[in-house]
Amino acid sequence: MKRGLVTLLMLASSLFVSAHAQTVGRLSYIEPDAAPAIITRGDLRRLPTGFVELLHDARLEACKRQNYQRCAPYEWSAPFTTQDQAEKLERALSEAWNRFDARIYWRVQTAINGIGGQLANCTIGVLNWDAYLGAWDRNLFRTMPSSEFCDDIGGDWFLYITTFCFLMDGFTFWDRVTNAYQTAYTHALTRYYPDYWKDVLEAIARYAPLALWWDGVYPVPPGDSSGLVLQPVMNLPNPQQYVNLALEAQRTDLRGFAYLLARYPFLDLLGSSALGTLQQAVRRHPLEAERDGEAGLPALEALKRGLAQREGVFSRPLQWADGFGQGPQPRGSSGAATPYEYAGVGHAVFMAAQSSFITEVSPRVPIFWRTCLTETLPPIPVPVPFPMPILHANSRVDTRWLSVPEGYAIPDLKDVPRF
Question: Which of 111, 114, 115, 317 has the fewest Cβ atoms within 10 Å of its own Cβ atom?
Answer without folding.
Answer: 317
